[in-house]
Amino acid sequence: MQGVCPDEGIMKISVKVPATTANLGPGFDCLGMALPIYNTITIEETVLPGTGIEINVINDNATSDELLMEHLPMDENSIIYKAVELLYNSIGQTPSELKITVQSQIPIARGLGSSASVIVGGLLAANELLGHPADEVALLSIATEVEGHPDNVTPAIVGGLVLTSQEDDGSIIYKKLDWPEEWNITVCVPDYELSTEISRSVLPKEVPMSDAVFNAKRLAMFIQAVNSKDADLMKYALQDKLHQPYRMKLVPGLDKIMENLKHEENVLGCVLSGAGPSIIVISRKINLDKIKSIIKNTWEEMNVKVNIMTLPIENEGAQIINHE
Ligand code: HSE
């Protein structure tokens, strides 16, 4: 009898999953980093047969409930349900009576991995309920299948800064990199949303060879800069020609903020967080107030309110926090 704890009857599992920022400039679809903002996903077996799947969201952030509903549908179209269903199917079962609750703190549709967090949280909780049929490799693969790309789900599962790739057979390979402690990560979340679907729809199917080479060089520089804590190399590395130029029109203010930060000596780079519209600024740990006021003023001139947070990297991935 799977999923039922023989001693205590009904089981309830909660998983705390970090936010993530993806791409980090040159690493389109292959670089991601976990950040200390969390969603908590709880899966509970319900008592009555035939009650089906119930999904609830507790909104702990400033997002409107309508936006939450739009991006996290509470039915079988939910990405959480899809992830949980794929896991059950992988062991020849179908999920039946489950109550899923998402306690949401990660801003929705802002490029901070809110969808990856619920996929990962749902999967890990269901895996625990089922007695761990899936190992990390299988979980990464299912999460990526639902999300479409591995650069948010991988750091959400393993934490830290990660280079990750989905191979042709669907498997995921990843390597964790050590983020230099002397570099700050400033996350700037504007008050407008942008769905990943729309933000991917403006990307071309093919890019010029020179742009591909530009990014290949920058990604190599990024890895070397991080490994050797080389701030000057990082300034060259934090650039992109594969996605940011196409997304500029969807993120009003990004071009001006990049321009206004370009000559700030302590800024190593300013990049779109995932599919946007949040922006990440990597800097040395000095003159932060100046950097923040440049961003705030530039967006305020365009009537955009912004929440700016300087955060450490989260080196832990998703954690089971409650098991009853
Ligand atoms: N790499 C993905 C993209 C991240 O840029 O579309 C989306 O969260």
Descriptive account of the structure:
The chain is α+β, with helices and mostly antiparallel strands and 324 residues long. The protein is built from eleven helices and eleven strands. The chain has two domains: 12-177 and 313-321, Ribosomal Protein S5, domain 2, CATH 3.30.230; 183-311, Alpha-Beta Plaits, CATH 3.30.70. The strands form two sheets. Strands 1, 2, 3, 4, 5, 6 and 11 form a seven-stranded mixed sheet that branches. Helix 3 (114-129) packs across helix 4, helix 3 crosses helix 5 and helix 4 (136-147) packs antiparallel against helix 5. The protein is globular. Residues 1-7 have low confidence and may be disordered. The structure holds L-homoserine (HSE).
Brief digest:
It is built from 11 helices and 11 strands.
Discrete helix count: 11
Query: How far apart are the first and last residues' alpha carbons, in Å?
Result: 17 Å
In round numbers, the mean pLDDT is 90
Q: Tell me the β content.
A: 25-35%
Order of helices and strands: EEEHHEHHHEEEHHHHHEEHEE
Q: What is the number of domains?
A: 2
DSSP helix fraction: 25-40%
Shape: globular
**SS-based class:** alpha+beta
Major sheet description? 7 strands, mixed
Report the top-level CATH class of the largest domain: Alpha Beta
Rg, Å, rounded: 20 Å
Which blocks of ≥5 consecutive residues have pLDDT under 50?
A: 1-7
Give the CATH topology of the largest domain: Ribosomal Protein S5, domain 2
- Ligand roster: L-homoserine
Strand segment count? 11
Second-tier CATH architecture of the largest domain:
2-Layer Sandwich
